[in-house]
Write a structure and sequence with these properties.
about 200 residues; Pnp Oxidase, Chain A; 7-stranded antiparallel β-sheet; binds flavin mononucleotide
Length: about 200
């Protein structure tokens, strides 16, 4: 099989990229609107791009030609929180991506708890084992054929909250964290089968 990407529609390409760059992470992003309403939704087009300062980028499509609530809230406050999705909260995080009208608090709807952040206005999700308080440092826009302007937001991580239960000997234990990845449209993977692969050191 050989695919000329120009021959595919946007949705087909979206699904293929999600299958190929896989597993994708799931960043459950919580924000707050100008009226104080909390908002939370999952996003997988997410990547770390710099380590000091620690910067993570997230790519947001439009929804029915309009900016998503998450993007509007980030533009208004200049911040957001990335909550890591693990096996214990995957169901709620996916449910929160439902077509809830603006003004509906997806955290309340899905039975999750918003708690105050230290340095940003956006709330943290109490049930997540890791929360990253982020401040937007840059935003790019890319015109996407048939879909309009996609926003790519770069956030600097100001504070990392890591629960003691996953912090072992000065590092995060992935066996305890149990993060979930996305491997297809409605397909997710557990990370219970982690392997260690070492390389032979080459003398420079
Ligand atoms: C696992 C998963 C990953 C998603 N990743 C993205 C993404 O990277 N970018 C995006 O624009 N939408 C993504 N979505 C869709 C949003 O979660 C969805 O449009 C949501 O309703 C947006 O909510 P908001 O309007 O409250 O911001 C994803 C959905 C799921 C279930």
């Amino acid at each position: 099989m050989k695919i000329d990407t120009a021959s595919l529609a946007r949705q087909q390409l979206h699904d293929l990229i999600g299958n190929i760059i896989s597993p994708l992470p799931i960043a459950f992003i919580s924000t707050v609107g100008p009226d104080g309403t909390h908002n939370a939704s999952p996003f997988s087009f997410v990547a770390p791009v710099c380590t000091k300062p620690p910067i993570i980028c997230v790519s947001f499509a439009l929804k029915r030609g309009q900016k998503k609530d998450t993007v509007r809230n980030i533009e208004s406050t200049g911040d957001f929180v990335i909550n890591v999705v693990d096996e214990a909260i995957i169901q709620q995080a996916i449910q929160a991506s439902g077509d809830y009208p603006s003004g509906v608090d997806e955290l309340k709807e899905t039975g999750l708890t918003a708690i105050k952040s230290d340095r940003v206005k956006s709330p943290r999700v109490a049930e997540a084992k890791i929360n990253l308080e982020c401040r937007m440092v840059q935003k790019l826009e890319i015109m996407e054929e048939g879909a309009g302007l996609r926003a790519i937001v770069f956030g600097e991580v100001l504070v990392m909250h890591i629960k003691d239960e996953v912090w072992v000997n000065g590092e995060i234990d992935p066996f305890r964290l149990k993060p979930v990845g996305r491997v297809g449209r409605n397909l997710y993977c557990r990370t219970g089968d982690i392997i260690e692969v070492k390389r032979t050191e080459i003398k420079a």
